[in-house]
Amino acid sequence: MKSRLLLFAATTGYQIRVFADAAKRLGVDLTLATDRCHVLADPWGDRAIPIKFDRIDESVEALRGRAFDGVAAVGDQPAVLAAEAAAALGLPFHPPAAARACHDKHLARKLYQNAGLRVPWFFKVPSEQEPHYPCVLKPLGLSASRGVIRANNRTEFLEALNRIRKMGEYEVHVEGYIPGPEFAVEGLVTRGEFQPLAIFDKPDPLEGPFFEETIYVTPSRQPAAVQRALLNTTAEAVRALGLRHGPVHAELRFNDHGAWILEAAARPIGGLCAHALRFEPDVPLEELILRHALGEDVSGAHLADAASGVMMIPIPKGGIYESVDGLESARAVPGIDDLVITAKQGQLLVPLPEGASYLGFLFARGNSAAEIESALRQSHTALRFQIATALETLKPSS
Asked: I need a labelling partner for 187 at 20 to 30 A (CA). Which of 59, 247, 308, 326 fits?
């Protein structure tokens, strides 16, 4: 009998297709739980289960009586529901409290602090507490770098707070700015024990005022002592949050004081970025996660490439996406493995901090991290994006 895996995801994009392909290769029956539609019976013809990520009890109830052998999730909100469903169905995954803590920047900071991890001072708005500068404002209702703004003085703080509130976010976490380079750590947790899979260097300085990520490159070029500190801090964060079984994606900084945990998410690295990781002999990250979710021992997993990386192509300005030139030249750069333009003609492009997307993704593989970074930058310079100015809709006069 085929093993059955329940995958929670908010969309049906690239990463879901990779999960589906991996399940097919392994002979696994994959069922998608998503919030695309809840009116028609099986509207997509893929036997997906309609749920609502903001209606936990209702969605868990819709899953009762179904039999699965494992649970996985893509995204922060899906991970919270996956945790609740796994607990109700008696399947291994991260506990609900841990998944919720990962999704709450303020609560996570408290747990890190209680565990003795390095954290900056922090508080939640509204508060009578006055910040020290520089500081960083992070809306609790948004993920990744959306709405994250650095303020160097009171004027910038009030401007940033007003900007976040115009986005409809009123609960804001404020913390001290942590100087130093930033890193991402990808791993798996089995019975509470953290297994590192990769350390990504982020060679571009992320100093603000906004924190748009661009290049991820692995293996890390940092000294062994720095890499150990990053991995040990991630493992401590996993214990502090109470994560138990499943993927974890962590973000950290490092400076003269040591490693600082920024966040640890109960999910894998998002979307197309996962394409930068392949494990011997030629296994995508999604297949590794699927095997782990079904109880397979994947502790021997090793990266298949000497070096690899991804560039999330940033939006240089707001406007209407028209086209891109230079694709052939960009793909011809030695080391470039793939180039995917995700922007669609006519799409309104919104840069950070309000925006939540990229123009596309560049992937590279090669012999060293330095070669990979150089290839990504050279390929990016070959691309010429045409973005038209977006005219504001005129309001009719009264």
From this structure: 59
**Cβ proximity of 244 and 192 under 8 Å:** yes
Cα–Cα distance, 360 to 172 (Å, whole number):
29
Q: Full-prediction pTM beyond 0.85?
A: yes
Count of all residues that appear for the chain in the document = 398
